[in-house]
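Subject: SPFH domain-containing protein structure
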Amino acid sequence: MEGIMSDSVSLNASKERGARTYSGYLMFAVALVLLGIFIWSIFRAIEMQGGIGNIGACVGWFVAFTIASSGFYMLQPNQAASITMFGSYQGTDRKEGLRWVWPWMTSTKISVRANNLISEKIKVNDLRGNPIEIAAQVVWRVTDTAQALFDVDDYKAFVLAQIEAAVRTIGSRYPYDDIEHKEVTLRGNHDEVGAELRTVLMERLAVAGITVDECGFTHLAYAQEIAGAMLRRQQAEAVIAARKKLVEGAVTMVEMALHQLSEKDVVHLDDERKAAMVSNLMVVLCGERDTQPVVNTGSLYQ
């Protein structure tokens, strides 16, 4: 069913093509010439005291001048005009300046410039089910004017709706954060997630003849109702991670100390004294406060 629907969409998709239009500057000159001939024909008819032929010539030159003076439109840089005749698409004109088409044709202007859009903040549940607030910035532009005008009802509203849908899709695929940095997250992998967001948007906007130049997140945070709890959780995870690194380093240093003492034959320790030394070193290395040294002036076993 999906394959049939996609095939029908591709068959019904419009495609931009060049329109047959003319230089407006040339037609302006032609209109001035026709206006001059029309005025001359009026004086000619007055001199000849009317006559069907002279009156018919005046009417003919007036109609020609009316046709030539109609159909002008102006195109700025990075602006296009879709030409239709009695509802049928005739092509798109992308040549800037003063342009002209036959009066019975209609021109609809459309911008092909880059548009910068910042979406509103929306609430999404991430991969772990945590509610987050997210907003995106998207730079998009029209590449196929026929699709933008005739394949969707309102291409600007279509862009807004698809951006929101794509942001929700990407936001639910990844967790907000990962303290162990073992998976892709929204907060820690901006470039990778932004590239996937762009891919999803281009797939969604292709039906409207729109491409996405760049995109990224402008706002990313936990929702207000869990922001405090998640902050405490992040702080706890950070403390645990720091303690883990500290203990791993302390164990390595104690192991190195015992090995060097034994290897260099500095002192011989039994198992009980080794355990006491390990305990003291771990306290010194893992403690948060400065330790006070105690000098033993007696024997090792006192």
